[in-house]
C-alpha cells in the first residue's frame, strides 16, 4: 500500500493521426466518431508531456493523435495509454488499494488547510493510507484528521487524530470574502453550514441588532457586522472568543459593531434583557440545546428568532417543539437544514418570538 503513488493502469485504444492544420476540418466531419474517456483529452499533443498519462507506442510526432471509437470507419492505429497516479481521483485510488469489503469515504470537510474525514470502524483500520491519499490528492491541504471519541457536549469540539501531514491544527479559512482564524482542536467549526449562513444573513439589514449567544469564532458575527449590523455575541468557550477577537482584527471590522461576552448563554441572554437592549434577530445555533434557551426570550415578543435544533427522524418534529413551548406553527416556518445522521435531522424554526407562546413557568 505504501507504493500507491506508483499505481498505473493501461488502456488499449484506437486513434488516428491528423495534421495540425487539418484538425478543425476533422472535428467538423468526424466528431461523432471520436472516443470520449473521462478526464482524457480527445486530441493529444504528442510533443507535450502530460502528468496524468503517457502515450507508450507512438513516437514524437508533428501530428495530433485523435482517439476514435474502435468501430469507426477511419484509418486507425493501435494506441497504448498508461494512466498515471495523477489521473485518478482519491476514490479510484482507494478502491484499488483497499479490500473490497471496505467502503470508500464518500465525503469530507475542508477547513482552511485542514481536511476532516469521518471513518467507520472498518475504514479506521486503514486510516493512515486513507489519510495519505487524501493529503496527496488535495493540493491545498496540509493536514488530514479524523474524529475520535464523541463531541464535547459543552464546547462542541472533539478529540482529533492526525492521519497525515503536519500536526498543526491552527488554520485560516475563507468564507464569503471573510477570513477566519480557527483553532480546530479547541473550537467548533462546520464548513457544511456555509449555505445556511448565507440564507440567514440575507434576512439581516443594515443597522439591524443581532444576538448570537453561541457565536463560536464568529462566522455569522463577522459577516453581519460587515453588513452594517450591531452584534451582541457570546460563547462559553474562551478559546472561541479569543479566535473571534482575532477575526475582528483580521477582517478590519469596527470593534464598536461587536460586543462579545464569554459566559453561560442563559446569563448572557438575561443580561441583555436586564439592560433592555433591543434585538431584531436572535440566532440560536447550538442544535443539541437551542430549544432549551428560547424560554429566556419572553421579554422579546417583537424580535425574530432563527433557532437551529436536532430532532430524531422517528419523532414528530411539531410535537417535539410543542414540548418546549406552544408555538403557533401557522405563523412560524420550519425547514430541514440537513441530514445529520441516519436517524437525525437538523431543522431551523423561524418566527417572531410572540408567536412561540413561551411558557411563563419555564
Automatic annotation (TrEMBL):
Q: Which residues form the signal peptide?
A: none
This protein's record includes keyword Cytoplasm: yes
* Reactions catalysed, as given in the entry: guanosine(37) in tRNA + S-adenosyl-L-methionine = N(1)-methylguanosine(37) in tRNA + S-adenosyl-L-homocysteine + H(+)
Write the record's keywords in alphabetical order, separated by commas. Cytoplasm, Methyltransferase, Mitochondrion, Nucleus, S-adenosyl-L-methionine, Transferase, tRNA processing
Q: Which ranges does the record mark as transmembrane?
A: none
Under the heading InterPro entries, the entry gives: MeTrfase_TRM5/TYW2, SAM-dependent_MTases_sf, TRM5-TYW2-like_MTfase, TRM5/TYW2-like_N, tRNA_Gua_MeTrfase_euk
Q: Where in the cell is it found?
A: Mitochondrion matrix; Nucleus; Cytoplasm
Q: HAMAP family, from UniProt?
A: TRM5
User: What family, per the record?
Assistant: Belongs to the TRM5 / TYW2 family.
Q: What does this protein do?
A: Specifically methylates the N1 position of guanosine-37 in various cytoplasmic and mitochondrial tRNAs. Methylation is not dependent on the nature of the nucleoside 5' of the target nucleoside. This is the first step in the biosynthesis of wybutosine (yW), a modified base adjacent to the anticodon of tRNAs and required for accurate decoding.
Protein name as annotated? tRNA (guanine(37)-N1)-methyltransferase
Q: What is the lineage of its organism?
A: Eukaryota, Fungi, Fungi incertae sedis, Microsporidia, Tubulinosematoidea
Provide the gene name from the record: TRM5
Amino acid at each position: 500500500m505504501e507504493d500507491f503513488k506508483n499505481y498505473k493502469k493501461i488502456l488499449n485504444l484506437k486513434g488516428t493521426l491528423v495534421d495540425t492544420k487539418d484538425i478543425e476540418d476533422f472535428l467538423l466531419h468526424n466528431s461523432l466518431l471520436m472516443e470520449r474517456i473521462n478526464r482524457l483529452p480527445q486530441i493529444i499533443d504528442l510533443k507535450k508531456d502530460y502528468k496524468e498519462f503517457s502515450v507508450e507506442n507512438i513516437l514524437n510526432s508533428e501530428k495530433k493523435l485523435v482517439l476514435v471509437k474502435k468501430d469507426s470507419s477511419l484509418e486507425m492505429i493501435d494506441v497504448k495509454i498508461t494512466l498515471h497516479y495523477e489521473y485518478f481521483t482519491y476514490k479510484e485510488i482507494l478502491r484499488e488499494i483497499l479490500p473490497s469489503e471496505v467502503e470508500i469515504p464518500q465525503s469530507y470537510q475542508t477547513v482552511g488547510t485542514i481536511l476532516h474525514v469521518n471513518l467507520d470502524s472498518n475504514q479506521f483500520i486503514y486510516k493512515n493510507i486513507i489519510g495519505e491519499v487524501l493529503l496527496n490528492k488535495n493540493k491545498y491541504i496540509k493536514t488530514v484528521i479524523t474524529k475520535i471519541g464523541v463531541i464535547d457536549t459543552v464546547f462542541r469540539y472533539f478529540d482529533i487524530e492526525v492521519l497525515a501531514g503536519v500536526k498543526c491544527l491552527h488554520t485560516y479559512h475563507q468564507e464569503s470574502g471573510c477570513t477566519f482564524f480557527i483553532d480546530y482542536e479547541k473550537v467548533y467549526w462546520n464548513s457544511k453550514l456555509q449555505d445556511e449562513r448565507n440564507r440567514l444573513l440575507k434576512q439581516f439589514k443594515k443597522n439591524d441588532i443581532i444576538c448570537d449567544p453561541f457565536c463560536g469564532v464568529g462566522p455569522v458575527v463577522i459577516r453581519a457586522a460587515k453588513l452594517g449590523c450591531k452584534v451582541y455575541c457570546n460563547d462559553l468557550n474562551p478559546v472561541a472568543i479569543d479566535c473571534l477577537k482575532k477575526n475582528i482584527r483580521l477582517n478590519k471590522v469596527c470593534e464598536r459593531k461587536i460586543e462579545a461576552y464569554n459566559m453561560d448563554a442563559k446569563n448572557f441572554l438575561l443580561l441583555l434583557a436586564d439592560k433592555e437592549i433591543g434585538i431584531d434577530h436572535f440566532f440560536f445555533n447550538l442544535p443539541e440545546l437551542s430549544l432549551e434557551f428560547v424560554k429566556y426570550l419572553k421579554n422579546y415578543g417583537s424580535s425574530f428568532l432563527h433557532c437551529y435544533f436536532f430532532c430524531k427522524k422517528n419523532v414528530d418534529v411539531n410535537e417535539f417543539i410543542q414540548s418546549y413551548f406552544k408555538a403557533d406553527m401557522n405563523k412560524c416556518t420550519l425547514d430541514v437544514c440537513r441530514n445529520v445522521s441516519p436517524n437525525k435531522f437538523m431543522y431551523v424554526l423561524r418566527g417572531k418570538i410572540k408567536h412561540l407562546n413561551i411558557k411563563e413557568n419555564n
